[in-house]
């Protein structure tokens, strides 16, 4: 995915997915309360229609299959593209099995398996990024190393939310990491594959980013560190804003019998004051 589109489109998809998860996690926590909150790795839409209910998973599965096909068609004999396709293969397997499990009679008892599958998706992504066949060095390698930090945090947060399903911090960190991964993909697309935005003294050569000197590379890495820090801060500002601003409350409907009207009550009090009893 050494192109602008190859980074921007998946980044946009991850960002929307992370925002969806963040909003739904906050909603579930505020509606159910700390004692009844249970984290989940996907969120159904409240409807009887099977397709719409599992729309998130169907979109994930479709997007993953499309990316796999594009990766294999464009460069069918390059190991790099097989690695990218394998990342999305795990996403496709997760979304497909999550649908199957949810439709099974024992879906409640298998919810932990879905969380394990989600953690496996991030773990496989981390593995393939770390042992990438493309030897990312210099500035491009630094951006990918920072990406690995995000994916590693996603692995840890997902495993923790599986171990402690009532933990709101683990669930919200996992959702925030998905947003951050999407943002960082888009930052990489702009910073590495938009010629006008490349640091001065750096250029794209044979599909790789190269800088004129070691000093220029170090300065560009320092800028990347700042971009990463700002991206992390931006994500948590968004998460905090959504947590504080979004408000859902349970509405209780109290069933009660017929009551004495206020005017009838006043008449009754007057009658009692005048010594008149109830008939």
Automatic annotation (TrEMBL):
<dbReference type="InterPro" id="IPR006904">
    <property type="entry name" value="DUF716"/>
</dbReference>
<feature type="transmembrane region" description="Helical">
    <location>
        <begin position="6"/>
        <end position="26"/>
    </location>
</feature>
<keyword id="KW-0472">Membrane</keyword>
<feature type="transmembrane region" description="Helical">
    <location>
        <begin position="85"/>
        <end position="103"/>
    </location>
</feature>
<feature type="transmembrane region" description="Helical">
    <location>
        <begin position="110"/>
        <end position="131"/>
    </location>
</feature>
<feature type="transmembrane region" description="Helical">
    <location>
        <begin position="228"/>
        <end position="246"/>
    </location>
</feature>
<keyword id="KW-0812">Transmembrane</keyword>
<dbReference type="GO" id="GO:0016020">
    <property type="term" value="C:membrane"/>
</dbReference>
<feature type="transmembrane region" description="Helical">
    <location>
        <begin position="175"/>
        <end position="194"/>
    </location>
</feature>
<keyword id="KW-1133">Transmembrane helix</keyword>
<comment type="similarity">
    <text>Belongs to the TMEM45 family.</text>
</comment>
<protein>
    <submittedName>
        <fullName>Transmembrane epididymal protein (DUF716)</fullName>
    </submittedName>
</protein>
<feature type="transmembrane region" description="Helical">
    <location>
        <begin position="143"/>
        <end position="163"/>
    </location>
</feature>
<dbReference type="Pfam" id="PF04819">
    <property type="entry name" value="DUF716"/>
</dbReference>
<feature type="transmembrane region" description="Helical">
    <location>
        <begin position="55"/>
        <end position="73"/>
    </location>
</feature>
């Amino acid at each position: 995915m050494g192109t602008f589109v190859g980074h921007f489109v998946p980044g946009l998809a991850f960002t929307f997915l992370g925002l969806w998860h963040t909003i739904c996690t906050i909603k579930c926590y505020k509606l159910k309360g700390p004692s009844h909150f249970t984290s989940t790795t996907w969120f159904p839409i409240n409807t009887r229609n099977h397709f719409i209910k599992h729309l998130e998973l169907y979109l994930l599965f479709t997007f993953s299959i499309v990316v796999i096909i594009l990766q294999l068609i464009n460069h069918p004999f390059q190991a790099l593209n097989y690695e990218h396709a394998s990342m999305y293969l795990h996403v496709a397997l997760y979304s497909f099995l999550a649908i199957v499990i949810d439709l099974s009679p024992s879906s409640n008892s298998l919810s932990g398996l879905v969380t394990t599958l989600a953690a496996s998706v991030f773990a496989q992504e981390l593995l393939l990024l770390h042992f990438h066949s493309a030897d990312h060095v210099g500035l491009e390698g630094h951006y990918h190393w920072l990406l690995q930090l995000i994916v590693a945090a996603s692995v840890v947060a997902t495993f923790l939310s599986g171990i402690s399903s009532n933990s709101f911090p683990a669930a919200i960190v996992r959702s925030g990491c998905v947003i951050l991964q999407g943002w960082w993909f888009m930052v990489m697309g702009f910073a590495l594959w938009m010629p006008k935005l490349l640091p001065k003294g750096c250029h794209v050569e044979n599909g790789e980013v190269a800088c004129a000197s070691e000093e220029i590379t170090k300065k560009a890495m320092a800028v990347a560190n700042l971009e990463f820090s700002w991206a992390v801060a931006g994500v948590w500002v968004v998460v905090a804003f959504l947590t504080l601003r979004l408000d859902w409350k349970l509405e209780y409907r109290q069933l009660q019998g017929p009551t004495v009207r206020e005017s009838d009550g006043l008449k009754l009090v007057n009658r009692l004051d005048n010594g008149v009893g109830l008939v």
